[in-house]
């Protein structure tokens, strides 16, 4: 009897959870080698249903977010005839990379309320990190940050980049730029219906330097003196070797 | 073929870097300059962060001056005591320059300072060189003209702390070479250059050193100062990119040899006019960038999140 009541309770709460997202990622570890020239990540998944498909358009949004950075935005003004960096705004933490892919235009599948809660669209996600950027004096700086990062490709929105097959299977391809920052990346996947989130999941992706890149970088940070001496010895040796080699060529 | 530079954190075409190194080597072989004044702006241009460009430029100057100074030592064209006096000033200047550079980086004015320094020094030196070499060309056509005497040499003889420099055949105060060395040290740290283009005229016109020892002594001093600068940048800013430096050096070595062969086929006056025009062109380009309205008024500088 108690069991039946419990089951009923579960069934009553189920409609909200009738659809679930199950996801996978092509690589959860990306290594930056000397030959690194950007990378692509495939995020794929399926919608699991316990009941017939409900009404309304199904939407899938996948976001990929890079580790946070401190960013100083500077503005040039003309001082005494030359252009000088005169004002700045420091944003203590903001994603170094942020890409949004969706199965349909964002305004059709994502309500502003949901966006404000889940921080999905680019400006909202950035603001979630940086705090309100809308201060009267900070607004142009925040806009400049978004504009510069969108131009460089660090922030992007690709509507319809998520391909949805038979309202069940989906995939999204992300291109990671060549100037990738090391750290923890996070992929978030949202299943939406009528602007509201039905289910979500996330997966971490680790990006790190490997091999020679890792060795060089670590040495420069942890043993700067040894690193500096190594750079010098290489330069001195190269200079000496070049002089010696060309003297030999000339003499022969 | 792209290569990811571990310190600059950008991916750059490997042949572009070899080519840049080669171009700079060509210039240094052709004109006898280190080429730092051209490599640093070029590195800015291909998207290397300014701090990395300046520090790595200094490392590249070490390599190019080593091969030069070895050849000069064999010719006994290095005034070692003079070099040491210049170096004492140079290392002090380099230390000051690093402090200045780091302070400017914090203020966000480093790009401006480096650009201004380039415009002022390259513009000034380029104009002087052009004027001088045009005059030299005229003089070559008109024998019997008198070489103008330099007035500043008298001041050099009046100052205290005199010292004898045998190789140069000079008996002068150590203060002027010390100050020259210090100025070049500051410039080396801030601009990522060896400073040969300032050192050579200063040695000839201010110190009155004979031309045959000028190049060797200047290279000797530049070698030590840029080595010190590289080390200081590596320690305080961690901004020397050894992979970038290595690629530039490899390109530079080859370019220098081609440059030397080409240089042997041109007249000295023609070479100097060409160098003057090149220096003026770089100064003009950087100067215009400062004066013309930029296409983008905002810039981003990133750091570690707290």
Automatic annotation (TrEMBL), chain A:
The chain crosses the membrane at residues 225-246. Residues 1-18 form the signal peptide. It comes from the Bacteria. InterPro entries: CHP02186-rel_TM. It holds the Pfam family Alph_Pro_TM. The keyword Transmembrane applies. Keywords: Membrane, Signal, Transmembrane, Transmembrane helix. This is Uncharacterized protein (TIGR02186 family).
TrEMBL record, chain B:
It comes from the Bacteria. InterPro entries: TM_pro_TauE-like (IPR002781), TSUP/Inactive_protease-like (IPR051598). One of its GO terms (cellular component) is plasma membrane. Its main location: membrane. It is found in: Cell membrane; Membrane. Keywords: Cell membrane, Membrane, Transmembrane, Transmembrane helix. The chain crosses the membrane at residues 12-45, 51-71, 83-104, 110-130, 186-207, 214-236, 242-259, 271-288. The keyword Protein transport does not apply. The keyword Membrane applies. It is a multi-pass membrane protein. PANTHER family: MEMBRANE TRANSPORTER PROTEIN MJ0441-RELATED, MEMBRANE TRANSPORTER PROTEIN YTNM-RELATED. Belongs to the 4-toluene sulfonate uptake permease (TSUP) (TC 2.A.102) family. This is Probable membrane transporter protein. It comes from Rhodobacter viridis.
């Amino acid at each position: 009897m108690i069991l039946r009541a419990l089951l009923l309770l579960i069934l009553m709460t189920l409609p909200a959870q009738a659809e679930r997202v199950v996801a996978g990622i092509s690589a959860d570890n990306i290594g930056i080698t000397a030959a690194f020239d950007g990378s692509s990540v495939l995020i794929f998944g399926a919608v699991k249903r316990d009941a017939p498909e409900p009404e309304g358009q199904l939407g899938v949004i996948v976001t990929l977010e890079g580790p946070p950075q401190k960013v100083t935005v500077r503005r040039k003004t003309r001082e005494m005839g030359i252009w000088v960096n005169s004002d700045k705004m420091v944003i203590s933490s903001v994603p170094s990379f942020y890409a949004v892919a969706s199965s349909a235009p964002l305004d059709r599948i994502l309500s502003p309320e949901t966006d404000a809660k889940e921080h999905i669209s680019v400006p909202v996600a950035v603001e979630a990190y940086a705090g309100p950027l809308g201060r009267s004096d900070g607004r142009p700086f925040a806009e400049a940050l978004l504009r510069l990062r969108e131009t460089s490709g660090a922030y992007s929105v690709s509507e319809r980049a998520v391909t949805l097959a038979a309202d069940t299977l989906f995939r999204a391809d992300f291109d990671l730029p060549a100037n990738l920052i090391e750290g923890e990346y996070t992929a978030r996947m949202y299943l939406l219906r009528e602007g509201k989130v039905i289910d979500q999941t996330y997966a971490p992706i680790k990006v790190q330097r490997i091999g020679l890149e890792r060795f060089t970088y670590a040495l420069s940070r942890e043993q700067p003196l040894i690193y500096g001496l190594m750079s010098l010895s290489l330069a001195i040796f190269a200079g000496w070797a070049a002089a010696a080699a060309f003297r030999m060529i000339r003499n022969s | 073929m792209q290569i990811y530079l571990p310190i600059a954190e950008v991916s750059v075409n490997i042949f572009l870097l070899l080519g840049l190194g080669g171009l700079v080597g060509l210039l240094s072989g052709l004109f006898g300059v280190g080429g730092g004044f051209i490599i640093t702006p070029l590195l800015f241009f291909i998207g290397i962060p300014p701090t990395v460009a300046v520090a790595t430029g200094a490392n590249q100057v070490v390599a190019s001056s080593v091969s030069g100074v070895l050849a000069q030592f064999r010719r006994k064209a290095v005034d070692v005591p003079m070099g040491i006096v210049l170096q004492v000033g140079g290392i002090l200047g380099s230390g000051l320059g690093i402090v200045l550079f780091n302070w400017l980086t914090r203020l966000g004015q480093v790009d401006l300072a480096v650009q201004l320094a380039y415009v002022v020094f390259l513009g000034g030196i380029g104009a002087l060189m052009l004027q001088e070499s045009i005059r030299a060309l005229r003089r070559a056509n008109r024998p019997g003209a008198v070489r103008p005497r330099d007035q500043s040499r008298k001041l050099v003889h009046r100052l205290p702390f005199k010292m004898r420099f045998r190789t140069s055949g000079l008996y002068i105060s150590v203060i002027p070479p010390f100050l020259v060395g210090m100025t070049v040290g500051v410039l080396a740290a801030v601009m990522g250059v060896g400073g040969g283009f300032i050192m050579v005229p200063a040695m000839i016109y201010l110190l009155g050193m004979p031309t045959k020892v000028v190049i060797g002594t200047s290279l000797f001093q530049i070698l030590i100062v840029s080595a010190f600068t590289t080390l200081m940048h590596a320690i305080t800013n961690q901004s020397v990119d050894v992979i970038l430096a290595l690629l530039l050096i490899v390109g530079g070595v080859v370019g220098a040899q081609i440059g030397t062969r080409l240089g042997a086929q041109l007249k000295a006056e023609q070479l100097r006019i060409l160098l003057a025009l090149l220096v003026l062109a770089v100064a003009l380009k950087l100067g215009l960038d400062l004066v013309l309205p930029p296409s983008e008024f905002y810039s981003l500088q990133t750091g570690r999140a707290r």
